[in-house]
Amino acid sequence: MTEASRHGGQPSPPLPRVRLVDVAREAGLSKTTVSAALNGTGRLSPEVREKARETARRMGYRPNATARRLRAGRARLIGYVVGEFADAPWTFLESPYFARLTGATAATALRRGYAVVLLPAGSLQSEWADLSLDAVVVADPVADDPVVEDLLAAGIPVFTDRSVEGLPGAYWVDVDAGSAVREALDHLREQGARRPVVVVPDSTTRFHTEVYAAHRDWCAAHGLPERVVRVGEPGNGPVVRAVETALADAGPDRPDALLVVAEASPPLVLEAARRQGYAVPDDLLVVLVSEDATALHTEPPVSTLSLRPEAVAEAGVEHLVAVLEHGRREPAGTLVPTRLDVRGSSLRS
């Protein structure tokens, strides 16, 4: 029998909301004590604090979000936008890197009592003007990104990459792109590569600008020509076509190593190399900048350069929480080391 049939076809009336005074009465404590216990304030013994919290859990008490916001002066909302995807603002979750970065940002924020709101890239004025955002994460902003400029002008704390270093109200977490590229190229050279080619996005983000510069300097230091193919848009299709272009030279100077900085599926990159007549790793050493788990399961397994999105997200949220809850206002930043996972695709026996 359903609830509706037991009440003459009418749905059951909603249960009354459990109030703070109900929890206090049940626990045998004052409202002030229970409020302090649930908000982590006041000088209470661990036993009293746990009693209040356990009673609230058992009774299904939920604090009034509006009242909490008025008391704290915060909505506990963090905006999140990917600057590099302004032309296709909702496609970034198709990227393993941005999917992991977004998930880790949301999970870390939630542990600190904040919810994440996904926003489209581009000029955000119309989207965020009516939202009570406490702060905004701008992942991979483009050069002179209007989103960052608009948010800082509005006095909203921003977490983004190192391009904002020193700006009031801006906090950054970044990876050392130059060191990462040099580490990958040095590894390929140690394995015997002398004609590496690099596939990179045609992008103005700080990360990709540093990749270009590091590759140029590395080639100059080793007396090698720069072999670069740029990809005009994200996605497996454009990147795979760029890989095929990079490997199309059939002469004696054809590439003997491939570093793909533009994100693409590891199996598809290997297939593209084979279509161009390369055996990996015998003819061609391969390293991808990637967070794609399929790299572990290809034949051979693909070496990857990880930008460690979980570490980036955790450091970024910690910066924002420190600003929002402890009033820290001086610009601050963190440089997260990358990780090169060497596998069969870049090892020669």
Characterization of this structure:
Residues 18-72 form the HTH lacI-type domain. The protein is α/β, with parallel strands linked by helices and 349 residues long. It folds into three domains: 3-63, lambda repressor-like DNA-binding domains (434 Repressor (Amino-terminal Domain), Orthogonal Bundle), CATH 1.10.260; 77-174 and 310-338, 3-Layer(aba) Sandwich (Rossmann fold), CATH 3.40.50.2300; 177-307 and 341-346, Response regulator (Rossmann fold, 3-Layer(aba) Sandwich). The chain has 13 helices and twelve strands. The chain has helices spanning 3-6, 20-27, 31-39, 46-59, 65-72, 96-111, 125-128, 146-153, 177-190, 206-221, 236-246, 266-275, 309-326; strands at 77-82, 115-118, 135-139, 158-160, 170-175, 196-201, 228-231, 257-260, 285-289, 303-306, 332-336, 339-341. 39% of the residues are buried.
Concise overview:
With 349 residues, the protein is of the alpha/beta class. The chain has 13 helices and 12 strands.
Task: Please give a handful of descriptors for the protein shown.
3 domains, 40% helix, Rossmann fold, six-stranded mixed beta sheet, disordered N terminus, 13 helices, 434 Repressor (Amino-terminal Domain)
CATH topology of the largest domain: Rossmann fold
How many distinct folded domains? Answer: 3
**Helix- and strand-based class?**
alpha/beta
Residue windows where pLDDT falls under 50 for at least 5 positions: 1-7
Distance between the termini: 71 Å
Range of helix content: 40-55%
| CATH superfamily descriptor of the largest domain | Response regulator
Residue-averaged pLDDT = 84
What's the architecture of the largest domain, going by CATH? 3-Layer(aba) Sandwich
- What is the number of helices? 13
Describe the strand arrangement of the main beta sheet, using strand numbers.
2-1-3-4-5-11
The share of residues in extended strands comes to 15-25%
Largest sheet: 6 strands, parallel
Count of beta strands: 12
What is the helix/strand order?
HHHHHEHEHEHEEHEHEHEHEEHEE
- For this structure, what is the CATH class of the largest domain? Alpha Beta
C-alpha-based Rg, rounded? 26 Å
The global form is: elongated
